[in-house]
Design a protein that fits this description.
The structure is a homopentamer of 265-residue chains. Chain A is 40% helix and 25% strand. With 265 residues, chain A is of the alpha+beta class. In chain A, strands 1, 2, 3, 4, 5, 6, 7, 8 and 9 form a nine-stranded antiparallel sheet that branches. In chain A, a hairpin with an 8-residue loop joins β6 and β7. The radius of gyration of chain A is 20 Å and the shape is elongated. The relative contact order of chain A is 0.18. Chains in contact: A-B, A-E, B-C, C-D, D-E. The interface between C and D is large, with 36 and 36 residues.
Chain lengths: 265, 265, 265, 265, 265
């Protein structure tokens, strides 16, 4: 029964939302934004207010059409990914990950989003920023480890995404570069068995918010991800985390159309 | 007087709610989900909003009928248990414990629940996830202790359920496996006197939320449960808990029909 | 002027509320519940919502009549005491202390309370549970101290009540019974000068909520109570408190009729 | 332009509010309450709800008239001071400091305040209680210091008031009286340069709330007050504060009529 | 498409808002307020309530006109800067930085702001105060470092502003002046590479709120700012921070007209 409704909904929503004039979806730079250093990554989590669900479905679909318009318009300059947190995290309903070369561009997107009729139902649950940088410690690692790190993750969809914010203790930053490097090597070795099934991306945050790092993970095997975190908790470097998670954001990777379909229901 | 109203209510609610077409309550896999390793357990606690109680009783009963529909529909794939926290915990009114082989299935259930007319009155109070795993330290325990652990809990209803989330300190994970095993043996020995009256289940959480473990208890003798926790506070391993509870969730095990009856009042 | 209104109000409220049919106020067991070990004590604090005060006074009086009905009905099985926190504590407006042999009975009372038209205006501010037990350390105390502890508190009304929740550190539970006993003797000796003017009752909480103890005090001399707490802060055992208060609940002991009169205004 | 409106407003408000019949403003005991030991001081901070400002000005003035009535009526028994926090503290809009010989009298005032039509717009932001006591350590100070402490503060208005709640560590209370006295002497010596421009009053709180002390300051020179706190942070005794501020309340001393004028706007 | 609307909006808003009679924008003293010691700096952050966005645009523009009036009127005495936090910080939407010689003047501005029709939609997210003072440690620095500190930052717009509140540990204040000076020299040396691209201003807060310092930064190169903070985390003095950020406020510097334009949308 549910799937019948679901198929109809998907059709109705996609037809309506598909009418949006997308000015330019030239996502040419998306690959660069997602792979190069010097890019700002913003994680903006939102809850929907109590009024959202009380609106008529046609009103909601109209407002979601505006969401689609805002996102598509900014895709010229920004790489925007969306995640469904509802049901898996108690902090928010949806998460936007935005990559930009300037945070002003990200701010403009979020202003347009929150200024839209859809956005008026969004309550900000959290905003975190980080910067991608060249690997700090890897150049000094043994060749064997360097080679292992080149293993790329298995192809195929990775439906789960996890965001773990990290704050190091003052003691960590007070250590010599050598000592930190040795501990980061032990840390990195612990991740090797999970390179194939857990994709990982690191953002540097000091000064941009109350964090030092944002770690982002994608996987299809949550059990492997759990084992990875357990392995990381056992290395010496873990003792220098003043904050690890709090909140841990767990959600599923979704296309904009899937998000729209879920929120239209 | 109360019981007369109560009996009438039970009758009225059950008649109305009983009309729900349950597509397939083939709970064949429930036993497997509740006993095997590699299963995800989610604890989702909700409060009812202020509008809920202000609605007409007939409206509330209609909405509770939808709750029943959503739960029954997902029982094909999920093991769903419900607890009444109201009056015993200040964090939430109801708690769902959901076992699934994939967290995506759990997310879909909670999306359907929150998307229903009943669900629009639910405010998420907390969501925690854990994974069932084979016993970590038990294989190394002395035979005498292993034998004692095989004592199963007394049959009969266990009306009280308690959920205690746990976060270990970084020091714990930095210990050798041997030292952790020795402390877990002392911990386990402390639980032996309570095996008959307090049922216990362990979930591993690292990475899935801001916890390392979720411990779940059922008992008909809360005083025994209190004595068990007191005994566990006295063993050395307890010193390695950075968080124990916060919140402790205490409630009563209820059938879906009982929950519906209470919420209809 | 205020007292004239007050006298009229008291009359009007008592007449209206007095019409409630009290099914059975056989409070025969109240003394047992308040003095024996193995009894569960629940402290449930509530705030009134913003809508409460905006209602017409006649509506409020009608709802308070229902409150009286719910309380009287459960007095068959439970010992229920009520405290006015408003003006003295910023956490809540009213506090219920409920003694029961089974927490299920307490839950049923609170469900009925919150389900009543009056209860729909209550927001749960906090719920704590503890268990009364036989004195743990007293049997080992010197005879002189044992004799002093038999001094009962002065008769006469004790208008102030204070509730202080306590969580001990892991170090405390890791100490030998002997060391804990010696410190508890020092602690107890510090209380002797205040036995006459400050009444005290202890509840054991480990596992039932995020506390180890709930300490309850009644006094007519708050200055003596302050001196008692100051004396307790100076003994060695105090260093093993991880939490002491947070919140400290301070209120006045009130009869149900007095509470009703205050809330009707 | 603003001052023209302001003058008119002041006139209109004072005329209307001046019509309140003040039963007895015999503030004979105010001096005693503000200077003697054994008096309870309560700091009750309130925010105005969102509805307050949305009301018509005439409605607001009528409600403020009731505020004046409640305050004047209780001035027979209580010393009531009012402070405007809005704009300077993010915790609340107004602060009442109430001195009484019994906290029950203070509770009755706050019940009447919150029960008035004006009070229905007040949200409690925090309530703290303390007791005035004879100086604890001063009798043992050297004569030179004792003489310096007799310097009274300069006459003239002191428009700024600051309230800093303090909680000492368990280590502090575990120290010998001698060691505490030596540190308090160092603490007191640090305050001498500011005795003329910063007025200070101490309240003892242990057991009455989650504090050990409430320190209250008045000054016309905030820069001197800042220097005083900086000096106090540098003495050894400061290391024994577990909490200092959190919140620090900063506001301006206002007459009841000034508060009414501001809130009427 | 967006820019067309944007240009029209800018025109419409500026015409309407431009009609405000500005009594005296003699910002003669602005330079003094921003450069001299003995000036109070207040950081007041606000969120807009849910009703704001639901109003008609013409209503919002009328209210923003009032905002402009209030700001302009107080610019006689105060230096007022405005920042757009929305999209970059999750704590608030707008931030006012106000410099004054007396905090009473700042309070009057914020009272007038919150009392205006626009201000009724503002929810206070946080208020922090600090005092500008002559450099504490610089006079004792080596001449070479003193010379380097005279480098002024590059001209041109610095669109990003960051506010980091700081609380030192009790240990910091317990150190000798010499030891603190040595550590502050190391701290200052770490900032030299960033003097050109990151502008910095320090406020002293002890006693005025729950902070010791407020550090304010402006930059056009956020990556440089990130590197600066990273460098500061590595010096010894950083170990004496009990709080650094929490919250870190990140926003963009905006003129009053730009803020009005954004909020009008």
């Amino acid at each position: 029964m549910r799937s019948a409704i679901s198929i109809f909904m998907r059709f109705a929503v996609l037809v309506l939302v598909g009418l949006v004039m997308v000015s330019a979806v030239g996502a040419a730079d998306r690959d660069k934004l997602l792979s190069e250093p010097g890019v700002y990554g913003t994680f903006a989590a939102f809850s929907l207010d109590a009024d959202w669900a009380k609106q008529d479905q046609t009103v909601r679909i109209a407002q979601l059409t505006l969401l689609k318009g805002v996102v598509e318009q900014h895709r010229e300059k920004l790489a925007i990914d969306i995640y469904l947190l509802r049901g898996l995290s108690d902090h928010a309903d949806v998460l936007f990950r935005i990559h930009a070369t300037e945070l002003r561009e990200t701010q403009q997107f979020l202003l347009d989003l929150q200024g839209s009729l859809f956005g008026k139902h969004l309550k900000t649950a959290g905003v975190m920023h980080g910067l991608t940088k060249k690997a700090n410690y890897v150049p000094g690692f043994p060749d064997q480890l360097k080679a292992e790190l080149k293993i790329s993750s298995e192809p195929g969809p990775k439906p789960y995404a996890i965001v773990i914010p990290i704050r190091k203790s003052a003691d960590w930053w007070g250590l010599d570069q050598d000592k930190r490097a040795a501990m980061m090597q032990e840390h990195t070795e612990a991740t090797v068995p999970y390179l194939k099934t857990v994709k990982r991306k690191l953002y540097h945050s000091s000064g941009l918010d109350d964090l030092d790092f944002i770690t982002y993970f994608e996987t299809s095997k949550l059990e492997d991800f759990h084992s990875l975190v357990l392995a990381l908790e056992k290395v010496k470097e873990f003792q220098y985390n003043r904050r690890f998670g709090h909140p841990t954001l767990l959600g599923t990777v979704r296309s904009l159309d899937e998000i729209i379909e879920v929120l239209a229901q």
